[in-house]
Design a protein that fits this description.
heterodimer, A: about 375 residues, alpha/beta, abc type-2 transporter like fold, 4-stranded mixed beta sheet, elongated, disordered N terminus, B: about 375 residues, 2 domains, 5 strands
Chain lengths: ~375, ~375
Amino acid sequence: MSATRKRPRRPPSTLGAFVTKELHHILRDRQTLAILLLMPLVQVLLFGYALRTDIRDLRVAVVDPTPDVVSLRLRSRLAATTRFHLVNVSSTTNVIEGLFQRREADIAVVLPTSFAERLGRGDTAQVLLVSDASDPNTATTIQVYVRSVLSDFERELGGGREGAGTVRIGIASRMRFNPTLESANLFVPGLIALVLTLVSALMTAISLSREKELGTLEVLLVSPLRPWQIIVGKVVPYLALGFAITCLVLTAARVVFAVPMLGSVTLLLAESVLFTIVSLSLGVLVAARTSSQRAAMLGALVGTMMPTALLSGMIFPITSMPGWLQPVTRIVPARWFIVIARGIMLKGIGIEYLWRETAILAGMALLLLVMATRSFHAHLD
Amino acid sequence: MRVLRFLLRKEYLQIFRDRFMVAQMLLLPCIQLAILANAATFEVKGARMVVVDEDRTTSSRELVDRFVATGRFELVRSSVSTKGADAAMLRRQAGAILRIPIAFERDLVRTRAATVQLVLNAEDGAAAGVTLGYAQRIIADYAAELATTLPGATVSMAAPQARQPALDVRTRGWYNPELDYKFYMVPGILVQLVTMVGTFLTALNIVREKELGTLEQLNVTPITRAQFIAAKLIPLWSLGLLGLAIGLMVARFAFHVPIRGSVLLVFGTASVYLLAALSVGLLVSTMVQTQQQAMFVTFFIVLVYLLMSGLFTPVRSMPTWAQWIAQANPTMHYMEIMRGIMLRGSGLPEIAHHLAILAVCAVAVFTLSVRQYAKRAV
């Protein structure tokens, strides 16, 4: 007991020197550093510009067995729609398979025989929309587009058919917090979480287990540094790095995509520091439990990166997940961070609405820190 | 040949001794399959809705009932004030606010037209759009129902039943009639699995020898570079195919994802793609010094490749410049091939041009990486 008492009296610069050494390690490895700074920027650009789900160019094939006045009108109508692109007109449905296989068409509009005649008689003409549903989301969207063109056409056809008997209930809808459903606005908070996880959890896990593998950790352990000092020394530089990268991503998102920042930047930065501490503790835990760098790397990948990417609501909304999976997302720290980040950035709300999420993150941080220090202790003995 | 055999044995022993590593590498996609197959949907099951019913009439209550009856919406509160509803949305207790204005019923009876207001929390992006779609359908159904039941002056118009629609539009989705997102995602995840096994393991494996100094030792032995590279790549190549086989089995039997095309073609194309993936790993290993660097460089490359491959978002939705970049991405071509074979049952002729580009990419990267490696080691 008395031996441990003496330690705090050590000159305070011990920890400082250790942090400096760690910083040198990080700054010396230019390649990793460059990638760490480049990756978030490339991701912001990719998510902002390249990764979109809207369909701008839609390739339509028409199967028209018996061309007549009305079917020609429909065809020119389809061709005239800005988004559409008429790629093929034929008389049989046999061509569809080939068009889909060669990925030359997205949807085929199959008209019935003697289209004009049926409509002239006042019958209902059946129109079949065959879509390449291998990508179901795109297929559904395309069907909606084509349907809306067809219903416009229908209205134009027989103005008299639809009339006074119908009831119209209009919907004035509003997309709150993100009126244009801009994907960059949604991705940036998630991206911050992902990058922070990458930098803090993955980097710490690898760097600690590297020292373990090379045997330098043993040296550190017999040095006058106390275990918590080693952990703090390992963690502080990454905390700083994570902070810098958060600022970088936010600036890039602001400058390039004008992503809104309705709430307080200070609060967001403070919350991201809290989240970084959670991730760092996870990294230390992974390193303590694994024996090699590669194992630590995979452990960090499975244990932190994957849940952050898939279960945090970053890409796939949590409300869409099945009942059993939704509770699982509650243990993913990034889930809470994303709620906080979106709240601050898009809704402009403050701590009065976010105290619950913040408390959960703080609780996680505390628990994981204790666990990490403990397991590090265990490794000592 | 004998040297190669010994080297191969050493490599296989080393790989399989590190069980944890192999297990995780193969487990990773299985977990991912399980999560993605369930999580990766944009369908919304119970959108939490707050109703601000200012009208408080039979019609307004009926409309709310319609929303609840579909099971798509879950009524969390019938708040009367717009303010209360607003606060609920800020607190994330409500995903949607339905406001039925005063005189909703009166307008319906008098003019046969009325408007309701729907505010959606677009924080979740895709979910908000889907929810709006559900709401539109529910309201349209209700309006159609009212057309026959509502007592109104205009019913005097002769026989509403005779008013048939001109077009009856039906839809059919080929290759995936149930529109199951899982079927689309699984081939993509298998591609990701092959990519990760190929690049990560190769880069890490070689850099590890570099870091431990055993690469130096190997370089001073009479082993030729060709032997060394072959001995490194063949085991990982077979490991990649093994991973694919396991992934395919899980996809087929646990998730009931169809494999409509030839399994032989799946493995044949995978072999070609693996050559490209392994070469990227080899190339990375010549550029870096430590495993940490190898890991980050590979992670960065793989991430860009996967994001630009159409795994999550369609390539055709990308801007034109990004589509051009995607054309040079072997992962994109392999993604097309896998989805083609598994979902559409494509044969060799349908995927030929993707395969050709893939082969060219593979040979190019392989040549480059071997050259680079030779230069480094001399």
